[in-house]
Amino acid sequence: MTKHKIALIVGAHPDDCVLGAGGVSILLIRAGWRVIFLTMSDGELGGNPTVRISEENECARTLGVHVEYGHLPDGNITSVEAVKVLETKLTEHRPSLIFVHAPADSHKDHRIVSKSLQSAARRYSSILFYEGPSSVDFKPAMRIRLEACVRELKQQALLAHLSQSTRVRTTEWIEATGRYRAWPHFADDCCEAFVPLRMDIGLLLNPVSPVDTLSYVVPHVDQLALGTDMNLLSDLTSLEMLKDCPVSRKDHVLFFLGGLLSLTLAFVFSWSSYLVTA
Ligand SMILES: [Zn+2]
Question: Where are the transmembrane segments (predicted)?
Fold first, then answer.
């Protein structure tokens, strides 16, 4: 059985995780990772908490991520309680990669969750800050390109948060911000952008399975999803849309070269066996 690497995405309220890191979550799942949303409150200040939790569950199901809750009080999250929840979840999951709100944010809960995570995860090697509509002075150093079908799936997942998308127009925000972050290198696409607190580059060189080796041939974070075998998705019915994603020309070249190498090795092995036995 494949041992999945785990990415933990931490957000103060339902919808924070998908807004800041929904796209990269989809791409990590495609690359064989297990992705967990940790939503620290039930979001009761933004609507009925039962509705908000069911929206977050539906959003997670659409993305193919697992979701867990801290059940801390919306609008009144304290660092003591947040660190306690985070330390418990970190011990339970041991994530290789963690995403959390950027520390500069006009929302108090976001600031406290970001700072608390930095404290709770002080021994973890890879932590990235994501942005949201209330981020302040966010200056990204890393970004990942979201091809059209990934973008559509992220939008579809966000639409599960019906109580918020009409109230704060979050769908417009991810489209506008994604376009802005893509400029100028991926001007026809959208990107999600991040600020690394620290990042273990070795993560890019240590793929989950041999199939995913192709994903890391190009050592660039923008190419994280290259070459993913779509058969990996066969048990993820929520990601059906991704089967229609076009495979890039670079993928075709890599798969062709891989096949050619396998055939050559098989021929050499057969020939040498023949010589030994002859
Ligand atoms: Zn929030």
Answer: 253-274
